[in-house]
Amino acid sequence: MSERDLFLSEHEKLTRRFFLRAGAACVAGTGGLSLVAAAAPPAPELAKTLDKLEPFFTSQEDFQDVSRGKPVPHSLPEEKKREVGLTRDTWKLEVVSDPDNPATLGKQLTRADGTALDFAGLMRLAEKHAVRFAKVMTCLNIGCPLGMGVWEGVPLREAIWLTRPQENLRRVFYYGYHNDDPAQMFRSSLPVGRVFEDLYDLPPVILCYKLNGNWLTAKRGGPVRIVVPEAYGFKSVKWLTHVVLTNLYHANDTYAEGNNDIDSPLKTFAATLSTPGEVKKEEAIPVTGYAQVGVSGLSKVQVWIHPAGQEWPIEDRYFTKGPWIDAEVLPPPRRWGAGLKDEAILKDTMGFDATTGKPRDWPMRLGKVHWAALLPGLPAGEYLLRCRTLDANGIAQPMPRPFHKSGHSAIEAVKLTVKA
Prior knowledge:
By secondary structure, the chain is an alpha+beta fold. Helices cover 14% and strands 28% of the residues.
C-alpha cells in the first residue's frame, strides 16, 4: 500500500472512531440556536463553535445585497421613491397584455385608466389569499445564500385573474422600477402553468410584501416584489411595477443574455461556516457549515480532510472515491431568530405544523440547515478540508447539475494548517 493510500485508510478508520467517541451525533442546544437537546452534550471544542453559528433566519438588514441599478432604486431619496411608486401608499402594478405577442384578456390593469392594482387592493386580496413560506434567497452565480426568511404575499395568479384571461396566454414576464431607463430594465419570466398551479407541492409564486413578519424594506425589494419559491434570486424581481401576459413561446429573461441557465431550480450543496484555520497537532478540529436544500432534498452532509497537494486521479474530478465521513445535520432550532415575535415561526407558515410550530419535514426543501463535525487531530502539515451533500436521491454534490451557469455548487476546499 502506498503512503497516500495508507494515510487515507488510517484517517478514515480514526475519524469514524473519533465521531463515536466524541458523540458527534449528540449535538445539544447551545448559544443563539438553542438546538433540540440530545442524549449528551457535544465535546467542548465543538460546543464553542456551535455557540457562534448564525441565526437560522436572516433579518432584513443582514441579507446580502446584489441589487442592480444606477442609482440602486432602494437608495433613492424618500421623496423620489414616492414620486415613482416605491412606497406602499404610491405603489401601483400594471397587469397588461404583451403588445408584440398579445394574450386575449377581458381587461387590462393600467395606470392610464386608473385600474392598476394599488397596495390597498393587494391587501384586500391578502385577506383571502395571503400565504407565507420559508425560502433561502440565493444568487445563481455567487455560490452562497444571500439570506433565509419567511416570505409573505398574495399568489401572483390572483392579480392575473383580475384581467379575465381568455386565450393565447403562454408565459408571464415581469419587471420592476429601474430609474425609467430601458437599458437598466431587469426582466424575468415564467410559464403560465407555474403561475396558475403549484406543482410538486411547491408554494405559489407570490406578490411579496412582507419578510419575517415585517413590511418589505426598499432594500429587500419593497414595497412589492416577486418571490418564486424554487428559483434563484434573479426570478424574484424587486420593486415590481409591471406584469405582462404574453403568447410568446419562450423565456425572455434579462439573465439569459448573460449565458445563464434561466430555468435551473435551486441546487442542494454544502459549504463551511467556521473552521479553525490553524490548530496544534493532534488537537481536535471543530467544523460547522450550512447546506442549501434544493429541489432534490438532502439526505447527508459529508466532510473529508486530506494533505494539501495530495494527488488525485484526474478522472475523479468530483472526488467520488474520497473517504468521506458523515457530518451531523443539526435539528430545527427552538428559536428562529431574525426578530420574529417570541422567536417563534409565524402562524400558518407553509410546511410547519399549525399547533406545534415545528417543521413537518426536516431538512426542509428550498431552505438551509446547519451541520457540524468534530474531526480528530492530525500530524503537523498543510491540509484541505472539503464538504459535500448527498441529495434525497443519494446523488453527491456537485451532480446532477455540475455546471456553473445552472447554479454554483462546486465542492469547497478550505485550507487548514496543523502546527507542530
